[in-house]
Fold each of these.
Amino acid sequence: MTTPQRIPDRSDVRALLATCRSDTRTGIRDRAMIYLLADVGARPVEVLALFPADLRRGEAPAVRLWNVKRRSEAERDPERLPAWEQRQLELVAGWTRRSPAEALAKRERRELEIGLATADSLDAWLVERGRILGRRHGVARPVFLTTRGSRDALAELQGRDAHKTEAGAPLSPRALQAMLASRSRKAGLGWTLTARHLRRFAAVREIEGGGDVRDARRILGHRSIATTARYLDDAGLHRRAARRELLDRGI
């Protein structure tokens, strides 16, 4: 029997956001990522694989996520993609340990509306992102990037050549998880809030807002409605409704 995952409440997420200073680029970036994770329950790879072309602004802001867990029947040639999509494909292939062709064969996107607070935080980060990149072409780079250069500290200690990275490099899923761990400590939560916790938070918010298990499944990108029902069972929320719908729809 598995132990239910802890579900953060709104006070946990607010505490996390409160650690993101609005007068630093890192704080502005991290705030946008946390808002996005909590709003649509995206997986780390899905957030980090966002490119500017995946953002929709206007009266109904939305994001288009790369649904890395679902299979697509479409078989396409990676070399025929636009340059920014080729770069996106390279990043996802590296993070998921697949070849570009395998990653493309499994690609399926979903477009989700986002809240105004999430959209505003993204807009604030895009302004800072533009300042980081300057004249460099930002269309072919992910939305979320490093805010300053860094050097391999371990290599320096061992006397090896330390590769200096420039600001504006892609973030890794490990860096995102490390950011959440650091923010959790700064917020004084007493536990580490992860991207998986925020996925469950998003599912609970969807149900509390009047949605059903199928709506939660859509935003989370699950293949099976049973997986979504387990998320809701972990929260102890609308358990009977989730199971009723599961029986009505079939597995």
Amino acid sequence: MNTQIQVNGASTEVIMVYPSMAIANEFIRLSNFTVSPMKLQKLMYYAHGWCLRLTENALIDDSFEAWQYGPVVDSVYHAFKRFGNRHVTMMAKDYEGRPFGIDADDAPTLALLQKIFDTYGPIDAITLSQKTHQQGSPWDYVFNNIGPGNVITNAIIKEKFIP
């Protein structure tokens, strides 16, 4: 089923769920390899949150957890943690050494990710992290009521997402 969504006036259809590494790689590509691991996590969170809020469908096939500096996908953290607060200079690859990616024919998802990058990309990682910590946000709810490190379920993101 194709779902129409509006992101700041841009209409797109999100057609499929992707591995978290594919979404990460697309944001790395869009940033021209100038995104830090922390900012990458926040861009992924906002893309996933917009999809859940507007379509009730997930964008990625993984879960976000409530870590100290905001929502984090554990597998993406481990793939890129070696970069610390520096720019990520490589893409995540599968077991055969091929970069994960978005289907080139999936224009709706690519358009959504471009719109998220255009909207949140200019914002620095610390500000994005602080934004995810707003009172009443999914991160705030899980971190302060369930506990640090716990999964921020898609149901909680749908209910409490703050763009």
Amino acid sequence: MLTHGHLDHAAGAAKLARELGVPIEGPHTDDTFLLEALGENALRPGFADVVVARVLKAERHPNADRLSLCEVDAGPVGRFSVVCGAPNVRAGMTAAYARVGARLPAGGAGAAAPRDLSLDLIRLRVQKSVSTPRFAERSLQGSDPAAALISTRPLTWINGSGDTPVYRWESLQPGNRVEGPAVLEGVNSTYFLPEGWGMLMDGWGNGSVRRRA
């Protein structure tokens, strides 16, 4: 079965099918243009300065979560430090190593085919100044949360049921105290304050929930 029509997957399919006496399944018809270009691409592999190397050491990059810092041995070519983005890189494996200046074939055929790629070494440093947010504690506005009251809503909870006040979270002011049962409705979430519990808003916009004595 051929999953797609790339050179490394499909080039030897006919020979294997003849030798093993099995039919060829796939690839999808959308890959027809790749199959039609197999002959041309097979005649022009075009790799330069690409060698087989063994990974001697692979460690997490100190400044990036998804990169590894590797030491590779390319035999007579030498040893190199390489930044690798492959998640499965590990010490002891062998892989293709493209040196600086290597040329890689882009594939495709015809006038619209992309040009071959060459690897260059660049040094890039990005700096961006980010302002540090400053949070100011607001003064207490009193315990009455009536200004944040939206409506009442019939609810049923474990210990009872009844019309329950609904408050807009963003409208609660520092010092406001909400007694449960109550619904606290915000832009990103909705909370239920159980019966027997109370919530006090502090000057930073945080709600502290405690059971009433």
Amino acid sequence: MSQYSLSNVSNQTEEICLKAIDYDWRELKNVKNQTNKMCLLAIKHHWRAIQYVNNQTEEICLEAVRYDWRALQYVEKQTTAICLEAVSNYGEALQFVKKQTQLICLHALREQNRRTSLYFVEKRTHKLCLEAIKNIDSEELSYVKSKIKKYCLESIKQDERRSLFFIERETRQYCLKTVKRDGRALEYIHNQTIEICLEAVKENSDALKYVKNQTKDICLEAVKKYGLSLDYVKEQTPILCLIAVKENGYALRYVKNQTYEICLEAVRRNGLALQSVKEQTIEICLEAVKQNGIALAYVIEQTTEICLEAVKENSDALKYVKDKSDILTAKNYLVLKIEQQKVVTYQ
């Protein structure tokens, strides 16, 4: 038992009680004669203290729901002011409102931190449904029984991507409007057309992973925009792979059947793509280190020529040279280059 416990204190002065509550807010339940000051101090420490308040005044209750909306569940006599304060802090506080009014529900639905306030509305009127969809989250549409066109269009305006998940009858108008704003909305479209899929990948190439029936044109549009989208292509072709690595050399990591031409193009775009080359050749390695000298770190069989080209491109590549004689050659090259620069500067 704490040294501040009031359970066995017969002479409870305000000072003693305040110290005990300050130490442990739960001590409020052991106070014989509670004051507003004691109650407010306890609530300041934890909103659950409201359940131990003997005389719940509006002032105390308002303070409690200001600290945390969940305190509303312990308020015995709920007033409009208390309920409005709670739902204004967090819309889902509506679930603890004993007598809902349209005013309280509207405040809950307009609150910015809510998620599914409409779920807790007992009487979902046309005005409340439209308010729910208009403000924040398309998920509210799932709680609207009659998904009329007005609700659906308003939902799309607010939350383009997820709203389609809750629309029972998709139309070309809804789908195109949505994917043009956020291609990832394709994930929620049941009746996908080539037109809709093309618009989706044009907006966001990552939408390719949601395309149910991929075509050459859809895949081409995606990898042209972002080479790494090749990862989502179900049936790769040499042309698609070549276009992908031209856009981003790192796309080579997703190429299932590597060819000399594809690998060469990849390292020309990004020398570090060499780490994904399955069968290295001298030509591929040379192109890689010419583009980025640090690619030498991924060269399996180093030659003097490859090492020299790497150091020419980036002197830091010297630390990746394995053979001592090649290190000496590279160092001599660097020394000669420095001397030549000095001569040019002097002249």
